[in-house]
Amino acid sequence: MIFLSTYENKIDAKGRVSVPASFRAVLEAQQQPLIITRSLTDDCLQGQGAQRMNQIVNVLDTMDSLSPEVQMLQAMLANAQEMKPDSEGRIMLPEDFLNFAELSTTVMFVGVGRLFEMWNPDTYRARAEAQRQHARTNGLPPLILNPSSNGGEMT
Known about the structure:
Layout: E1 6-10, E2 16-18, H1 21-29, E3 34-38, E4 45-49, H2 50-60, H3 68-78, E5 81-83, E6 90-92, H4 95-100, E7 106-111, E8 116-119, H5 121-138
Antiparallel strand pairs: 1-7, 2-6, 3-4, 3-5, 4-8, 7-8
């Protein structure tokens, strides 16, 4: 299963936000805890299951442990936090996460496949519009779909 679609949810005064039910369902189906990290490339947070984080750690084990690339990815791991949704599906976002992604009253949850992103809605909308303009001007990147890699199914 993968994370799809976009949802805008309110952040309450305590910093709690409801994770979209479809995103929680993906994690529950995989029996995975939710792990939130700061993006290394964008001003957003990223959510994924522990399996995804384990894949990153496994790749790190194959790399030069003293390389700048490994140190950069280790910094992402050091800032990761496991979040346990409450009975209403809400998570408490720490102040440093809220500040990093410039979140205050609302958050845009964006499913991007094997992870999801959490954006300031205005920042996300501007980014999405810039991406559409780029695609209109430059065309879409070539996609080579390999149906044999997963039987052609979306899971």
